[in-house]
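Hi support team,

I submitted a single chain yesterday and got back a structure, but I'm not sure I'm reading the token output correctly. Could someone confirm the output below corresponds to the sequence I sent? I've pasted both exactly as they appear in my results page.

Thanks,
R.
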Amino acid sequence: METNAKGQQDIPVTAKTASPRRARSAEARDHVRQALIDAGRHLLLAKPLGPISLRGIARHAGYSSGVVYRYFADRDSLFLAIRDRELANFADRLEMEFATYDDAEKRLFAVADRAFDFSRDQIAAFGMNSLFLFWFDTAGTQNGAPIRDTAPAAARVHAFFEQAVRSVMAPSWRDSNIQSAVGALMASISGAVLLPRGSDHDDFPDGRIILRDTVEALICRWEAMRGASKQ
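Hi R., thanks for writing in. Yes, this is the structure output for that exact sequence:
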């Protein structure tokens, strides 16, 4: 039987304890980890008045507080695991829908539109933009170092954006041009989501309208660059 640092058994906190849960196999350990992620997600969606702690998440999942530290070093690492699962689900939805568009521009608008919905929903549900690691500072750094999103789901989403952009750009474009265009598209989505509704001067249109105008402007620029490359 596994024990924690204090020599205590990993026993779930339940009203009636029949026998300790033991994570002997990889499958069992994955089950415990997933249960903790589910519990953290549920608590985030519930929006409690007080802060969410790892111990509170463990209790909500039905485990003793010592168990959670076997899987997550701190609360941020568990929140990132929640974010990665949300992003993986988003990538799955993109994958299902991506092949339904034959027209390149329609596909690009669809990808941008779905990313806009996902980002807005994530902020409403969790207070963070899972697509762009919104909880880091606005300079794109953490402790002075540039952020690099290493989640496998983030790479999948990046690939979808790249495919959508490549389909409307010249095949001869260098990879640096492609990634600059992908970054411009993602920045357009993030800006449209985070833009305030207006100021005392005047109101802005809905973010979705602004996003469509911006994507149209990007496409016009890419077409102009494509035309210039043929001369």
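A quick pointer for reading it: The first helix runs from residue 26 to 46. Let us know if anything else looks off.

Best,
Support desk
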